[in-house]
Amino acid sequence: MTSATATKRAETRAPGPKHNIEAVRQEYYERISKHDMTALWKVMDSVVTKEPVTHCVPVIWHFDDIKRLVMESGGLITAEEANRRVLILENPALRGQSKATNTLFAGVQMILPGEIAPAHRHVSSAIRFVLDGEGAYTAVEGEKALMSPGDFVITANWAPHDHGNESKKPMLWLDVLDFPMVNFFETSFAEQFPDKTQPTGRGDGDSLAFFGSGVLPDGVPVEMKQRTPVINYTYARTRPILERLKKAGDVDKRHGARVQYVNPITGGSALPTMGAYLALFPKGFKGEKYRSTDGTVFVCAEGQGSTTVDGKVLEWGPNDVFVVPPWKHYAHNAAKESVLFSISDRPAQEALGIWREDRNPV
Ligand SMILES: [Fe+2]
To answer: What's the gap in Å between 159 CA and the centre of ligand 1?
Structure first.
C-alpha cells in the first residue's frame, strides 16, 4: 500500500482533526435529514427516559367557577346546537389540546330542562360522574338511566347514546373520555343518528339489577365480557359499601376505603381503557405518599380536604375536579369525612404491561 492510499483510507474512516468533528457531524446530520433520517444518539435521553416525564401539571377546578361559567353557556347555545354543551377542563400545560392528562379528556356537560343532546356513537368510551341536578337521563343501548349526584354512568365504545332532561333543574356532570388515547392510535370513528333519541325498551336500572346483584341472567352474551354491561353504577348502591369497608377497618393508608368499579362478569375494569374508583377517607385521614404511572382525574363527591401533589397543595370541596399527573408523589388529607371519585388510564397501561406504582416513595 502506498502512503498516499493509506492516508486516503484514514480520511474516510476518521473525519479529520478533532476540532473539526462537530462541523463534520453537523454536515452529516444535515445530509441524512434530506433522506428523512436522524441520529438516535442525539435524542436517546429524551425518548428513552430513565423515569416517566409528564407534560401535564397538577391543577384543580373549583365547582363554584365551573357551575357559574357552565350555566352562562346555557344562554349562549342550546344543547342541540352544540351537539354536546361541554366546557373542557384543559390542563394548563396542555392548552389547546382538549386534555386533562395526556390520555384523558375531561369536561363538564350541562343539559337544561327540556333539552336533548342528540343520539350518536363513537369509538371513544365515556365515563360520566353526576355532579348536580336530579332526574335527567342518559340513554345507552336501549336503557334510559336516570341520573342522580354521585352516579357513575358508562357509555362504552360504539354504544349509541343520547341525553335528555325531563326534570325542572339543570343537570351537570363530569365527562371523562379516552379520545386522546384513541386519537394517539388514530382509530376514531363517530356517527350521528337521524333521530334525536333512541328507542328505549329496557327499564331504568335494568342493567345494574341484572348484572350487579351477585346473579347473572342465564346465557350472558360473549360481547359483554369485553366491557361492563352495567349502564349506571348508582351512588345509592356504591356509597354504603364504603361505609361497610370503613367499619370493617379496610382503610388503605394511601387510598382510603376504596372500591373499584368492575365489569361484574369478568371482575376486570369496567372499561378496557379507563378505570374508576370510589374512595372514602375518614375525618382526619392523613394519607401516605404514593405515585403510579397513570395520570388521574379526581372529583370530590363529599367532604373537604386537600391533596398534596409534587409539593403543591390542592384544597378541595364538593364537586371540585383535580388532576394528579403520572409518577408525581401525592397524598390525600381529609378535614371532614370525604369521598373521592377517580378515573385514570390504568387498565390500558396494565393491558400493555407498562403500569407501575411506588407504594413507598422516599
Ligand atoms: Fe358522545
So the answer is: 9
- What pLDDT does residue 16 have? 55
**How far from chain centre, in Å, is Cα 101?**
7
Count Cβ atoms within 10 A of the Cβ of residue 255 and give its class: 0-12 exposed, 13-18 middle, 19 or more buried: middle
Cα(54) to centroid(ligand 1), Å: 28
Going by C-beta distance under 8 Å and a sequence separation of 6 or more, which residues neighbour residue 26? none
From ligand 1's centre to the CA of 108, what distance in Å?
A: 13
Q: How much is the pTM? A: 0.91
The rounded Å distance from CA 122 to ligand 1 centre is 7
- Centre of ligand 1 from the C-alpha of residue 88, in Å: 14
All cell numbers assigned to 143: 336503557
pLDDT band per the 50, 70, 90 thresholds, residue 10:
very low
The predicted structure's pLDDT at residue 80: 82
pLDDT tens by residue, 238-256: 999 999 999 999 999 999 9
pLDDT tens-digit map of 108-125: 999 999 999 999 999 999
Q: Which residues contact 238 (CB under 8 A, 6 or more apart)?
A: 150, 152, 259, 261, 278
**Residue 118 to residues 111, 155, 209, 230, 337, Cα–Cα distance (Å):** 11, 14, 27, 22, 39
